[in-house]
Recover the amino acids of this structure.
């Protein structure tokens, strides 16, 4: 495994900007640095570019050195998925399949399906078939005349992809690959077993809720519900007569949908000059307001799940920021006819539980890179040498599965300096 396999992932949404720098080693994520910027509503493109520059600078200051090469997460609205296949002849002297042949097949799949109107964002190889062997899990190293590759091709209109790429590049990010948000969540949430048996990912984000049904490793169906976390925040702002930013803060800090666990404390008060009275906002009040909207959303989710005709063993995985609201599991028991799993931070062993799409896109890129034989992103050893002390002193390098950050630093630096 190449210890230089270090990636930065960037997510741009209407609500926030997020970036993570991490290394993928031995099927585990080691997070080096992470930062989020909450965006004010109604920003112009130039303002977003400036905020992205701040995000990039903040990551560099935390990390101790800059990394421009970035995987950009693309929203999967209007995503199209279809199947295609390609045959690759093995023409080297020994007729042995190498990673270069696999990479060639993937490039052919992309070139066949990348048009002026559609932009290929992900290619997922579903099956390999090697001449004389039949279907194989990995053809690399086999002596054969040719391989057939059957793949799922995911595209979105260029009019959606290009603005995201352009804005990121204007801010100084070098976009070397892109990943659909729903594919990122698939890699984050689903094990190989649940990918095959079948599972649904529910992406509870700020502006809407997306559902994606995966089975046998392939995307089967998607749905979008036009209710997201911002609707809950707006409800609190309107009912409590406070601004959106304050309502968002209160939602994250005080809302608990398990009303039985709430002590009805006053969290904010203000004087209504028109009616000459003191208005008091309690934790129970904003929790009740939030619960009404969540119950509505879960009912709509339940209706969509019925359309998928799920098997008894298929699970529902709730991801993204909306899944972190306190007491959600309690309300799910009342509203859903299916078995839900909330992807909280204990599932990944990391403190960055809100960066699920960024983590998933890095996992997706790392797996893909090893197949095609390319390590796109790497650390310059001079930059790392200068920043090693800073990284160590500030505990910026963090292993999500064990407390071995110092050993990891030594291992990484040793590899870089000896290669």
């Amino acid at each position: 495994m190449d210890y230089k396999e270090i990636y930065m992932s960037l997510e741009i949404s209407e609500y926030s900007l997020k970036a993570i720098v991490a290394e993928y080693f031995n099927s585990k994520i080691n997070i080096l640095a992470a930062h989020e910027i909450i965006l004010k509503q109604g920003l112009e493109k130039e303002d977003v570019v400036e905020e992205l520059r701040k995000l990039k600078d903040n990551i560099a200051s935390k990390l101790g050195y800059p990394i421009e090469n970035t995987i950009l997460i693309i929203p999967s609205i209007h995503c199209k998925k279809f199947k295609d296949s390609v045959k690759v002849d093995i023409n080297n002297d020994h007729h042995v399949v190498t990673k270069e042949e696999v990479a060639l097949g993937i490039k052919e799949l992309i070139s066949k399906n990348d048009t002026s109107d559609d932009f290929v964002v992900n290619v997922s190889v579903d099956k390999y078939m090697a001449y004389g062997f039949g279907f194989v899990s990995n053809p690399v190293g086999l002596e054969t005349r040719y391989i057939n590759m059957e793949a799922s091709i995911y595209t979105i209109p260029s009019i959606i992809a290009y603005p995201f790429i352009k804005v990121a590049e204007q801010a100084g990010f070098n976009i070397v690959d892109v990943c659909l948000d729903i594919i990122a969540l698939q890699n984050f949430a689903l094990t190989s077993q649940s990918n095959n048996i079948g599972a649904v990912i529910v992406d509870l984000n700020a502006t809407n809720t997306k559902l994606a049904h995966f089975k046998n490793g392939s995307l089967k169906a998607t749905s979008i519900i036009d209710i997201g976390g911002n609707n809950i925040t707006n409800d609190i702002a309107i009912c409590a007569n406070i601004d959106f930013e304050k309502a968002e803060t209160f939602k994250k800090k005080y809302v608990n949908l398990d009303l039985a666990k709430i002590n009805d404390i006053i969290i904010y008060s203000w004087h209504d000059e028109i009616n000459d009275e003191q208005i008091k906002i309690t934790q129970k009040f904003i929790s009740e307001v939030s619960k009404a909207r969540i119950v509505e959303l879960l009912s709509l989710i339940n209706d969509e799940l019925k359309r998928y005709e799920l098997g008894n063993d298929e699970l529902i995985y709730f991801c993204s920021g909306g899944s972190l609201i306190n007491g959600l599991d309690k309300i799910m028991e009342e509203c859903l006819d299916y078995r839900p799993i909330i992807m909280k931070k204990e599932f990944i062993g990391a403190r960055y539980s809100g960066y699920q799409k960024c983590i998933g896109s890095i996992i997706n890129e790392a797996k893909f890179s090893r197949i095609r034989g390319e390590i796109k992103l790497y650390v310059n050893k001079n930059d790392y040498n200068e920043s090693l002390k800073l990284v160590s002193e500030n505990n910026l390098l963090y292993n999500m599965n064990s407390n071995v950050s110092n050993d990891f630093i030594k291992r990484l630096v040793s590899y870089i300096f000896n290669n």
The radius of gyration is 23 Å.
